[in-house]
Fold these 2 entries.
Entry 1:
Amino acid sequence: MNNYIATINKVKKNIIFNGSGKFDVDGKIYNPNFNEAAKNCISIDLNNKKYNFAIERIDDERFGFLFEGQYFVVTIRTKLKETAHEVIKQRFGSDNHNLIKAPMPGLLLKINKSVGDEIEAGESVAILEAMKMENEIHSPVTGKVLEIFAEEGTNLEKNSKIILIG
Amino acid sequence: MFKKILIVNRGEIAVRIIRACKEMGIISAILYSDADKNSFHTRMADEAYYAGPSIASESYLNIPKILEIAKTISADAIHPGYGFLSENASFIQQVENSGIVFIGPTAQSVKFMGEKTAARTIMQKHGVPIVPGTVEPLTTMESVKKVCADIGFPVMLKASAGGGGKGMRKIDDESQIESAFQRTKSEAAKSFGNDAVYIEKFIVNPKHIEVQILGDKHGNYRHLFERECSIQRRHQKIIEEAPSISVDADTRKKLTFAAVNAAKAVDYIGAGTIEFLMDEEKNVYFLEMNTRLQVEHPVTELITGIDLVKEQINIAFGKPISFVQNDLKIYGHAIECRVYAEDSENNFAPSTGKINYFKLPAGPGIRVDSGIDEFSEVSIYYDPMLAKVITYATNRKDNIQRMIRALNEFKILGVKTNIELLKWVLNNNKFINGTFNIDFIENEFIPLLPDKWQTEIPEIIQDGASLIASILKHKDNELKTNSNLISENNKWGKSFYE
């Protein structure tokens, strides 16, 4: 028996299957048909209805799904790994930590905070210049600035670390 | 006809012009920067020439280099597209001087329309309605009161020497005149050393309506009706329509008459657009003229059947406009949605990356003008517009449904896009019934951020995605342990992911 936990927008789903073709999602039984229509394009039949997804692999345990213009991320772990992850999260409170990275390459014009500053969710953290526009980067969480990794006036690659909030 | 046209642009508009050239048997030559070495437009043109580094000032805006290439390759004409050098009077002048035909208006017309206050005066002289107000500076309270009474509240009180939003005050009724006058005066004196003020009518909840015009070298002028362009973010249009749901026959007559007069006033040659503000009583006011092809030109092409790029090329060659005004009618309804690589929830910040999945919508009534394809990379150097989806149907109601269907079919991965926002607008009641204005995104969408605007992902979709993810993850784990739990007979065990 295989047991996986999928997380979509913080909602968890428990998936069980054993190779018989039947799948259990939170107690609902599906008998799905999977089809690879093209590269990065998988369709699934559920209850005689077809759903087409475009899919990208983000990392080892995350996939991006696009369905009719709506994009969302599915985090998928084995039940065992998910449990381990929960334990770690509880012990270190890693969910309250937020590492803000550069969403695009660009010139870091300004960092609005210093280490130790309080910051509100939605507050501007830094200004990154890209595509001739100044783009504000906002904090997704409320907390305290723990560490600053980047310097004002430097060029950043996409995904380079800027600031850690906890 | 021209033998070879050099296109001084990139992205979807370069592709649009290349397509017109191919249909007309003209050789299309293109410039490319380092970042565009392998871009869609570079691959599509008949000839491609290296212009310089990725930064636009050293390639697409590098006038000496562009002129040198144009001469070396014996281009007969230059098409500037939109943006970049398209409204640069000095560039146009240099092209004219070099003996190469510029596909667009003369440097002189562009200069006239580029100086916005001068344009206001010329327009007024030629019977084009401008935002009502004073041109003479006012110094006494009495004169301010009188003008307010004449044009009606609300008004904007502005410093004559002001600009950039400084020294400006909105007056809603008579009781506010005195303090507004004193404060604006003293602010103006402090900021600009000149306390003169003037008054302009404040246009309440305006729509952005524009009229497409053509002028040729034989003194003919035509209009191609209006476009509705009120759905904007960051002062940039994202959805355009033709015709406008708010423009009735009388208003259309007024708008198109004013637009043709505006074109005549500056001896305009080629395709141009007169932009207007329209208030809730359907009064229209001249805003400015765009002396070039517009991004949203396809909606006009679809409702009139006129190919604007071909008209531009023919006009530049010296041919008269291909149709007479009375032959032109509005057929059906067209919508354009601009698909941008950007984050709608984060101040519309541009998104960059390598496209790793790309599928365009198709089927009845759908046109896509795209600047990218599945091999593209969206870089930081240029405008993040990826493609324009344009739909056509016999009426607006059906067309909105068609556009939603088209956007559902548009699949792109690798960058964030605004497709979900576009769908949100198309489903919004104010959009559907036409009661929106230029502040629509600001007033309706922004307040719903960050989490009150998205539609819930249906349970069945979440389940389906979770099942696929679990299978993909399971396959990963299998590869790692090299076991063979999934038998050959199970179709879901098949390798369907790279």
Entry 2:
Amino acid sequence: MTSTFAGTAALLRLGWRRDRWIITAAVLTMAATAYGSMAATLDLYPDDTLAAAGARVMAENPSVTALYGPLPSLTAAGVGVLKTIMMGSLFAAFLAFALVRRHTRTEEEEGRFELVGGGVVGRRAPLAAAVCLALLSVLATGVLCALALLPTGVDPVGAVALGVTILVAGLVMAGITAVAVQLTATTRGAGGIALAALGLAFVVRAGADTSERGQDLVYASFLGWAERVSPFGDNRLWMVVPAVALTALLLVAADALLQRRDLGAGLWAARPGPARASARLGTPFGLAWRLQRGALLGWTIAYAVLGSVVGSLASSVADIASSPGMEQMLRKMSGGQGSILEVFFGTELRFMAIGVAAFGITTALRLHSEENAGRAEVVLATRVSRWRWLASHVVIAMGGALWLLLVGGASAGASAGAVSSTGVGELLPAALATAPAVLVCVGLTVTLFGLVPRLTPLAWALLAAFVLLGEFGALLELPAWVMGLSPFDHLGSLPGGDANPAGLVGLLAVATAVTAVGALAFRRRDIAT
Amino acid sequence: MTTVIETRGLRKTFGATVALDSLDLTVREGEVHGFLGPNGSGKSTTIRVLLGLLRADDGSVSLLGRDPWTDATELHRQLAYVPGDVALWPNLTGGEVIDLLGRLRGGIDERKRVALLEAFELDPTKKGRSYSKGNRQKVALVAALASDVPLLILDEPTSGLDPLMEKVFEDWVAQARQEGRTVLLSSHILSEVEATADHVSIVRAGRIVDSGSLTDLRHLTRSSVEATLARPLAPSEAERWPGVHSARQDHDRVVLSVDTSAVGDVVGRLGTHGIEALTCQPPTLEELFLSQYRDELTAPRPDEQAVVG
């Protein structure tokens, strides 16, 4: 028994050695965000009576509920923690996912496990070490976020409950990822499975929270569990118990799968494929398409489902906003134009656009992984020019992003149109109007790839910074120019409001410029080997 | 004969590391040129500069009369490249990769494709991730050798191949030479270069330290001549003959180290002593190589280190 775990401690130290800076930076950023959000809210509402008025408005706003869940309590602390609950949960989930996958399947796929596996390392050690690293990082996030709230003078039990919220989400996602990496032989495949589970959990949670009757369905989602810890509300600290139980169950399942498969293989065996290439696989674009089409199909299905779920919320949103006083207040709160339904969709579509930007970045990062793996070199030693090779991936990243916005907007419009006056005619253009910001994100990835190829994955940090600016920038009263660093800040307020054509044209110009800079720099630099 | 590859004073640094230090390499049309050197001597860096993947810091490079940095795309129509460590797309089959690379190069010889798959015993229906290192290497070799191009650039192409497959590879290189193609074959496996190449350049720490035809290089070094003689010959007498560097008695034989160019002369003089048996060994490439690297062989051997430890 112990021998199958031999080397776990050494691998854990190796993992920490490799990722210590990024983990430290990420965890501290999250804790600082939790503190900043709480401190700024407490400044805004010096006492709970004042807070209750504002809180009531927030509590009844369906777009807020869909994104962040219900308000834990009508207090200033409740308002101050609301965004941190869901953002912290998602953060912990992504952190756990990234760490478990990076130290298991990625290592195995790159063949580095063989190097390690030849030493005194037990069969279970790599998974055990990766899960330990993820759990410790998630635990550190929870503890530091809880500690970060204490200087603001809030109820310590609520602060601990926020830590538990974060822990619940991170624990379960570590378990889900541990199972996912056993199923397929590829890093990307495992990522697809784990992120699909996370996306499903989010959609189920959002749907349950905004529906009138299906509230209990929220417990079908582990993000729902995290949310219902309800820090500064009911403070259900015991929610950590079912989370630990489910995580243990998932880890046992992952271990059982691990025992059944070979090193480097997935549970789903690789089947033989065609002996000849199809006619389309003969150009750089054909190759890029072949490499990306599976992922694009998965994202397309996800966005069709997500769009129709978001669209179907239209009826409950319309119900809630039927009182004119409420509608006016909501509109003032969100600073948007148009009806409450339009404001709701505007918020949701921006959120979907961030997901599409993530698709664009991960697709453009193929450039980086192809070069690093040495596969770019083989292609670039044929008559394919560097420009064409780069363009083949960028076209799929940008074209795929536009396609996903189209699918999401059309699907939301179709299902919203069935129950309300807002339909495809409004939501499709609104979804496509977010495209310039998405294209800037892809373009920045290309810039990094051209100028500082080793740091290309920093594109994720840029996207995270844009999201944080959008979520917490106004609350922290950051100056306008700092807020304006995020491309998403320059989008208009569609549907219903001003499209901000000047902003969109500006974003398109920036997207073109940063892409061109990246392409020119790539043309002039050495290919990494 | 026209020059296919020519570099003059080629220099490439990576930070503080000097990878290429004034490297002069000349490869003529129709020759199989062995590019010999140990790991880290600059072989792959040279090849990547020749392919336009890296930009030289200094010096001139000409490939088929053009600059590979500015005319990479045009030049790549006329060459096929096999890297030393082939990375394949995990979800594409070997057959798909062969077709893809062939098409990207501008065409593939169908008959050769079939013959090569058979000769290398490669299953084209397996996915990239399930190939062993040797089989990944075969995929790239089949794609390159089946391409209809005048220049083959092969960077340690047989790493991971078993000896039987190395023989198959050597046969196909010989075939390529018969077709008039030029081959640049980088390697640290001396027997492979000896079996296939007619010209050799030896690279050391980013410089070419010796270059020429295999015959020329052999002339520059010493052959070993062993003779059993009817009438005894004192080693001290043999050492006075022109071209003889050393002589010693080994039981009934006399063993001489002779300049390869003087072998004929020496055998004639031995004849006057009545030759009963004679073996004459030309220098192997290994000896050529070692003579260039002799001072590095003073590094401690594992058993010596063990004594210290």
